[in-house]
Amino acid sequence: MENMNIGDWGHLGVIVAFVAAVVSALGYFMAARGRALGEVDASWQRLGRGAFLVHGVAVFGVIVALFGIIHGHRYEYYYAWSHSSNHLPVYYMISCFWEGQEGSFLLWIFWHVLIGFWLIRSAKQWEAPVMAVFAFVQLFLTSMILGVMLGGIKLGSSPFILMKEFMPDLPVYKLNPDFVPQDGTGLNPLLQNYWMVIHPPTLFLGFALTLVPFAYAVAGLWKNQLTNWVQPAIRWSLVGGGVLGVGVMMGAYWAYETLNFGGYWNWDPVENAVYIPWLVLVAALHALVLWQRGKTGLRTAFSLVVATFLLVLYATFLTRSGVLGNASVHSFTDLGLSGQLLLYLMAFVVLSIGLLVWRWKQIPVSEKELTMYHPELWVFIGATVLCLGAFQVLVTTSIPVYNAIVGFFGVKSNLALPADQIAHYTKIQLWMGVFVALLSGIAQLLWWQRNDKETVSATFTIPAILTLLGASLVILLVRQNGDHQMSLPYIALLTTGLFGLLANVSMLIQLLRRGVRLSGGAVSHIGIALMLLGILASAGYSKIISQNTSGLLYSREFSEELNRDNVLLWRNDAAKMGKYELTYTGQYFDVPGVPEYVNKELLFPVANDEYKAIARGEIKVGEKTYYKAGDTLTIRPEDTYYRVAYKQPKTGEEFVLFPRAQANEEMGGLLASPDIKLFWDHDIYSHISSVPDPNKEKDWSEAKQFTVAMNDTLFLNDYFAVFKNAEPAHNTAGLGLAKDDIAVQGDIIVYGEKGRQYHVHPIFLVKNGLVGRVADEVEDLGLRITLDNIDPQKGKFTFGVATTQKDYVILKAMEKPFINLLWSGTLLMGLGFGIAVVQRGRKPRPVPASKAPRSAKQPQAA
């Protein structure tokens, strides 16, 4: 039955949130209009505050309503039907909330509300002009989920639209206007991962945080406070840079753990759309620090802070307007918001750039001449390199936009994204990494002291010598290994990465000796250097260890790569793969409440509910029994986990991986996710490349019949079996037996290879006067056994035995050396940003005179 109230209340909440944002923006604007910073019209400011509070409360109400629709399985609403389903656990329902465009906009609005509340409390004299910008942004964002028609123009897309309103032409609504689907289409299988519960909120928090320095910059231009805005903007830029950087890398780890392309970054346009503003934000942060330290680069700081937020809006346009089309697997479909998104972008482009042009000549410019001994010069060059790297990615990613623009004027464009995007971006971005690593080391060494020829020489000597020694050793080891030769760009990245690492470590040690507090900038730079070295090792020297050495072509229908770079594993047959011996031992399901995957052979599926099964035997983990034979349990049948045992004969080392695969025709066939074995110096990354089609009927041989008595032996080609017993099948799943029905279950033990035993239970039944048979399979052996007939007078039972090809998987495995440097570097980078945020909130601590460096004053930590 339809529940209209929750949707009506949710839609009303969106309208209230929109109107309140309009009132708040007007109130704060009027409070600050025509007045110096810190002087406000109190009545207008109270109106702005109150309206923003109403806006926030309304947004919270909308969130509760939308999640209530998803959690309550109210499929009369299109959003719930298109993103959720009955069998999703609660934590994946949270992912459903922001899988769609409307939910992700709502998540973004939510973070702005929380940040806005904090600014109202803490911004003090900046509150009115900064919150005017915030409320203005909220006005536009909330309009994206309004879902109303004004003068024939659609304003926003509502998450509370009903199915019959979204798809009114469906025949079912002509027959039954009150029809409500019993289940939804479900969450995208690739998003059913714990990283998708935490990655999008982190990323959108990073997006939201970029608004704060932008708002301070706009307020500074508006109020002609061209320098005072820098201090609060730096701290917020640090928070935003750390959160957004960690959010980007969370997405990379999700890709590494979930997708099967063998990496963590694919230069997809949507990945690029997030990466670009982060690079510019980091460059903006360095420009802000330059002004605070050396009173230089203020125009650059203004420009980059403004550019960061505009690039976030541009990324929003790219991913949500549909302009990317088929260029990205991540982009949203166009919900008719293209014009509105473009208006949103252009409004802030005109506002911010107009203010910059208006105040440009008044922005202070330093007349200090920078020499090679000034750290500010190297920081400025580093910021420039980051911007150039962002520009290269931006230009190529925007090719679909160029095509759309010229197409609007009737001109057909032949521009296309590079065929090999990874190679295209990497050849430039690799050199950007080289310069970033080098410059981060140089700037950090120069930052903490007064520099001249003598001090610079002394400071650089030890890191430079250690760098050359370390790089030489690594190059020799790589060449001695014989598998790879290091190219010039790789040697350059290795050398500069080591220099960046050692230079920043060296400076941290010096600071600790002087009694200076820890430098957040140095810690972040160490993290960046480790990330670059991890990328170099894992991407540049990743090795496929599953090459086909059998000399056989698996299938002419397979690609050359699949035939060449994969190993064929027959069920329970050991196969050689490099230094490992692999054995595929069966298919497993995820059973909620059981801490390990459960063998599919222990589960008897229920015919009328694919999410239910009957335990065929005890399901135990360790000494604890979770289900007994005959118990009904819940399963997650969408995904099959293939158990692959790894063994290294020389060392005796053993481990088991469970790569996941799902047959999904809507998403291109086999949807595979890897499983990863972590070692300190490398990862073993394995995923399924091909399996027998589970939706295709197996090709069984003609059944061979055996008539036997109890305890007789059946000889089945390579195996033999013993018929142990026949018993009533009272509780067998899915039979639906009535009082007068009869069901007999045979108990056969099949003896396979290496002493393995399999219990098979075929069923003979008489139901409603009709004879039926339920076969049982031994997938390990490719056997299907039916109980065809029973002769009670002679005590004879006739079994039919059919055979088919044994089960198999085709698996790809890769070795990724030193990838932990990337992940540990990410953590250090985030930690460094956090340290810098805390330090910015403290007063500088004086340095003991005996430990002070030669500098006349102590620089602040970056």
From TrEMBL:
Keywords: Cytochrome c-type biogenesis, Membrane, Transmembrane, Transmembrane helix. It comes from the Bacteria. GO terms for molecular function: heme binding; heme transmembrane transporter activity. Residues 102-321 form the Cytochrome c assembly protein domain. GO terms for cellular component: membrane. One of its GO terms (biological process) is cytochrome complex assembly. The chain crosses the membrane at residues 12-31, 52-70, 90-120, 132-153, 203-222, 234-255, 275-291, 298-317, 337-357, 377-395, 430-448, 460-478, 490-512, 518-541, 818-838. Belongs to the CcmF/CycK/Ccl1/NrfE/CcsA family. This is Cytochrome C biogenesis protein. It comes from Hymenobacter jeollabukensis.
